[in-house]
UniProtKB/TrEMBL annotation:
Example of a GO biological process term: negative regulation of single-species biofilm formation
Family: Belongs to the GlgS family.
Protein name, as recorded: Surface composition regulator
Functional description taken from the UniProt entry: Major determinant of cell surface composition. Negatively regulates motility, adhesion and synthesis of biofilm exopolysaccharides.
InterPro entries assigned to the protein according to its UniProt record, in alphabetical order: GlgS, GlgS_sf
A Pfam family hit: GlgS
NCBIfam families: PRK02922.1
Gene3D superfamilies: Glycogen synthesis protein GlgS
HAMAP family attached to this UniProt entry: GlgS (MF_00525)
């Protein structure tokens, strides 16, 4: 894989994690708008990472409240 592709994946992963954290903190997140300019493969990958991080952030939020 090219270095540029790896950097793009790192950037997308960071964005997915950031938006998931925002969602867990109660901020509105429109993933459709976030992924609007991505191709189908990028959207699928981003949404999967976002869901992973969203669930993780929600679990952490529940633990903080307890």
């Amino acid at each position: 894989m090219k270095t540029q592709d790896l950097q793009a994946l790192n950037n997308f992963d960071f964005l997915a994690r950031s938006f998931a954290r925002m969602y867990a903190l109660g901020e509105p997140v429109d993933i459709g708008a976030v992924t609007g300019n991505m191709n189908a493969e990028q959207k699928a990958w981003f949404r999967a990472r976002y869901e992973h991080y969203r669930k993780q952030a929600e679990r952490a939020r529940v633990l903080e409240v307890q």
